[in-house]
Amino acid sequence: MENSEERATERRGLHGKRAFFVVLGSGILAALLVFGVLVGIVRTLGSAVAGPPVAGQGSKGVAPERGPVKEMKVGALDLCQALEQEGLQGDLPERKDDGSHYIDTASRGGPDEDSNRTVSDRCEWVIEPEYNRTLTVELTYKAFVSGGEEGSIGSQADRHLRQGISKLESEFPEGSRPRALEGFGEESAYIFGETSSGERKFVAAGREKSGVLFLSFAEIKQSKMADDELNNELKGKAMGAEPRLFERFDRLLPD
Which UniProt keywords apply (predicted)? Predict the structure, then answer.
């Protein structure tokens, strides 16, 4: 009788693998609980040290507010340099002009030039977006910095943009008409097609504040790409360059 009771007691206990897993599971659970408590303590201490958020430290990517721009230093605006260094680097740009077209009328001196100050430039590159495939890139721009007898800088910029778009139309067949290019400055248009010289070309025109620019991409040797495919590719390149260019108009030109 006594032996049978001992055997029953042994059966009721935990032995072998079962006992091992019970002990192991209890240890892991205890470790996780301790880890959770420690993490909570560290977060609480970190929040106390950091303190409340500072005004102006908004969400990442939100640009801080700036005051009104009243004047621009001579030589501060150089879109050709900005485009080459920041907008074309992935396409191996090779500058083709000699850089002599940059004009800031304020650098000439004299009251007449300074009363109606403009900054302008024209630059050209050859890029290689793919092996054995090349494009020409041309950027021309004109910024009206201070007004004069010709009217406000805003009205001069609007007039310059309209005249430039009208001139562009003459390079393309009658079927190619300027279309709106959303996101390319405050006011914009683009035109794509085969020019009178036989090259397929994309030109984007845009205005930001009192600055106007024209950015063109053209095939040096016509590829086998369909028109729609090429149009979308070149439009993408123009939109990729947009922040590097118009941001400088907005930041540097007087309000």
Answer: Membrane, Transmembrane, Transmembrane helix
